[in-house]
Amino acid sequence: MSYGHFQTDGTYTVTTPRTPDAWPNFLFNLGYNRSVSQTGQGAAARAKPVRREINRPGRYFYLKNHATGAVWNPNHVPMCSALDSYECDHALGHTEIRSVAHGVASTLTTFLPEEGLHELWLWRVTNTTDRPLTLSLYAGLAMIAEKPMGTEVMLDEPSGAIVAETFPAHHRYDDALPHLDRIPRQYWLASRRPDSWTGSERRFFGVGESVAHGQAPAMVLAERLDDTGCVWHTPLAVIAHTITLGPGESFSNAYQAGQETDLEAVRAHAGALTVASAERALQAVRARWDAVRELLRIETPDTNIDHFINGWVKKQMIWQTECRRNAGAYPIRNVLQDAMGYGFLDPAAALGHVREMLGLQRRDGSVDQWVMAHPSLPKHPFTQLHHNDGPVWLVLCTLVLVRQAGEERFLDELVPYSDGGSGTVFEHLCRAVAHLAADRGRHGLCRMHDGDWTDPINGPGRKGEGETVWLSQGLLHVAKELRALRRVEADAPLARSLDALVAELDDAINRAWNGEWFTYGYDDEGVPYGVPGDEQGAVFLNAQTWALISGCARGERQTKVMATIDRIDSDCGPRISWPPFTRWNARVGRVSVKRAGTSENGAVYCHGAVFKAFADARLGDADRALDSLVKIMPTNPKNPPEKNLQAPIFLPNSYFGIDTHAAFGESTLNHETGTASWFFMTIVEELLGLRATTEGLTLRPLLPTGWPGYKLSRTWGGARYHITVEGYRRGARPRIVCNGAVLEGDLLPRGAGATFEVRVSYP
Predict the structure, then answer these.
(1) CA 9, 700, 684: angle at the middle one, nearest 5?
(2) According to DSSP H, which parts of 273-367 are helical?
(3) Considering only CA atoms, which of 475, 480, 562 is closest in space to residue 518?
(4) Which value, to the nearest 10 degrees, does the dihedral of the CA atoms of residues 195, 198, 199, 201 take?
(5) Cβ distance 361 to 395 under 8 Å?
(6) Please, are residues 87 and 98 in contact by the beta-carbon 8 Å criterion?
(7) Following DSSP, what letter does each residue of 584-642 receive, concatenated?
(8) Does the pTM exceed 0.90?
(9) Angle 586-592-597 from CA coordinates, rounded to 5°
(10) 692-702 residues labelled b (16+ CB within 10 A) or e (exposed)
(11) How many other β-carbons are positioned within 10 Å of the β-carbon of residue 277?
């Protein structure tokens, strides 16, 4: 069954409200985040300074025809109303739900303005009949009740807003003092004052404190709402208006929901809210995302990839970077990899996030992997653990962003260490490599401590002696990347030390070869794990993909590694580990008690799977790389949305990985994943071949079979590039013409303010 389709601009149109699961868009600005499903449902949360939910998921819209008594939801729920027509557009910056029923056309559009702790709705209804209609419109917002302190809902007469006041929950006496004059107030207001209103969920639905699914609420059936708030009970703010429309006439209203600590601010919002002001705000949001699309836009034979690269993956990277995934605690690997992709769009802003992470590094080169988003939050347990992979991501992501910036100047910037003193960014990177190089065990491999990239493998190194092959491969890779810098070539002692480290690591990693694939590591007693003899958890994907990325797998070993990856592959990508653990394994720890087929225990963990695609491309196999990328996309024809259950507008965290299980291929429905940046980088730099360097952009296409060419437009270094590749022939030397002149090599010219027309052909 088809549930929708992409439009030419990347907007996804959902054609039925009855999707396999809730299909949400995610909308955000720096202060406010919310999800909005194909029926308009979804909770909202304040993003800064700490994440806090502002309201519950319910957004209730009802229409009532006074002549016939018909009552329906133009957004289908919660009455599951029969609609003559329905469409929902999920666009990058807004969601719009259009329906027709009982002779009334309805358009509900919701979005977040560029800034502010609020969301906006525009509701337009049109009489499509040939006779006048008297209608009542009911717009409801499910507010949060703080039971320990008590919530009161009331109408603020000066503004016409329904306001819920709750003193913040606290325990210590002093914790109350900062809030005495700053009480959080949830509010719901309309551009036209309510004709009637209510603040009680219990009274509105008339069935206790729960939504009346499949039937009209008691108050909608009554003549008007009760104009009464509530105390203690679950709050639901509902605004009602009654209108009469002649044939073909329309009525529009704007609504705003949010949170303020100053009641005067709510009144100011009410004074400024009009349909026209909301429409202007919507146009600003659309313009912002149009500009994001134009930063880098592609046209390939695969339109699904085009939609993801041109819009949806960009949005994922921007949200994850700017909003730090809305997390109270986060690993710096997430911040760094998200910023790595963000750097393709805004390198200066992305380097700001890297600068912050570098400032967490100590003088000895070490860095805590997990940090708190705000000092007021209670410490997350992971912040007490020693996950050892932070230095690798500091180096790798910083160097990628230096290339995106097109210059090495950032490497000379002074950044403080968290325990005093400061050093240049380059010195920070060198110390990161030196720290991991010094922290190696008996096999010459990096120690794991409480875990590496795979956090829940917390058993092998808990005594401090366990080692990890994957982290050693990561160190090998970044040591090579650091060694490639021109400034290292000019520093003979540093160059020699990096050369020696590369040789030592390559040798140590290859001694962890078990005859079929690379062992994942050694436990504290020196016993290997992730080997053919292990009944469960015999193969770990990352140790194989990074053997290819780092270049330590060569010749027959490279061939065997690729064959091993193929054995654990599936229709929706390779599993992160295989076979999955089905019982407690004391050697590997927490990963073994995760449900088999989920998360890091046998799932298709998309972040790990995209490493495979990147490795395929680095080996020059574009067909394998494309196959790997397509498999983890929600539009994968072998695991389509009706099977994976998710809206096809984001890359998910993972898919259930056991192919003999009925849930095989089902998505986590979670768009928080480092997959986005690697997906973007693999397509743009590896397959399309447009790679940023400190010298300029180089162009070396590596196209899959069936791709004769592509078009790409990109802003970089203040210049605009329009690239057309035609008649691609693998292995043939391309002819590159830029602004009418034939280039000798593959380095494109640069110059702020310039426009470059580039045509690539294969004579």
Answers:
(1) 30
(2) 275-295, 303-307, 313-322, 332-342, 347-358
(3) 562
(4) -140
(5) no
(6) yes
(7) --TTT-GGGGSPTTBTTBTSEEHHHHHHHHHHHHHTT-HHHHHHHHHHHSTT-TTS-HH
(8) yes
(9) 165
(10) beeebbebebb
(11) 15
Taking CA atoms, 187 is separated from 24, 31, 228, in Å, by: 23, 16, 15
Q: How far apart are CA 26 and CA 20, in angstroms?
A: 18
Output Rg (C-alpha) for the chain, integer angstroms.
28
Bridge-based pairing state of the strands 151-156 and 71-72: unpaired
In this structure, how many other beta carbons lie within 10 angstroms of the beta carbon of residue 14? 25
**CA 236 – CA 186 distance, rounded (Å):** 11
Tokens in use for 241?
């208006």
State both tokens at 280: 């202007």
Residue type, 591: V
Q: For 634-675, give the DSSP string.
A: TT-TTS-HHHH-S-TTS--SEE---TTSTTTT-B------TH
> In whole angstroms, what is the distance from residue 651 CA to residue 635 CA?
10
Neighbours of 705 (CB within 10 A): 9
User: Percent of the chain having pLDDT more than 90?
Assistant: 91
Look at 135-144, 152-161, 227-236, 613-622 and tell me which has the smallest mean pLDDT.
227-236
- In the chain, the amino acid numbered 470 is W
Return the number of other C-beta atoms located less than 10 Å from residue 662's C-beta. Answer: 8
Per-residue pLDDT reduced to its tens digit, 694-734: 999 999 999 999 999 999 999 999 999 999 999 999 999 99
Residue 455 is a catalytic residue: yes
DSSP secondary-structure letter at 378?
Answer: P
Q: What is the pLDDT of residues 504-547, one digit of tens each?
A: 999 999 999 999 999 999 999 999 999 999 999 999 999 999 99
**Count of CB atoms within 10 A of residue 612's CB?**
29
In this predicted model, what pLDDT tens digit does every residue of 409-421 receive, in sequence order?
999 999 999 999 9
CA angle 181, 57, 29 (to 5 degrees): 65
590 to 333, 439, 450, 456, 470: CA distances (angstroms): 20, 23, 11, 5, 18
Structure tokens of 341? 């992709």
Q: How far is CA 405 from CA 349, 546, 716, in A?
A: 10, 26, 8
Closest CA to 440 of 404, 479, 412: 479
Q: What are phi and psi of 98, to 5 degrees?
A: -120, 135
Which backbone phi and psi does 474 adopt, to 5 degrees? -60, -40
> Which residue, among 758, 622, 645, 616, has the nearest Cα to 699 in the 3D structure?
758
- On the question of pLDDT at 181 being above 80, the answer is no
Peptide bond into 49 cis (omega under 30): yes
Q: 118: phi > 0 → left, psi -120 to 50 → alpha, else beta; which?
A: beta
Which is catalytic among the residues 455, 506, 524, 569? 455
- In order of 45, 51, 116, 354, 595, the CA distances from 48 in angstroms are 9, 6, 11, 19, 33
Whose CA is closest to 65, among 136, 127, 123?
136
Q: How far apart are CA 563 and CA 163, in angstroms?
A: 62
Is there a contact between 103 and 129 (Cβ–Cβ < 8 Å)?
Answer: yes
3-class DSSP state of 509: helix
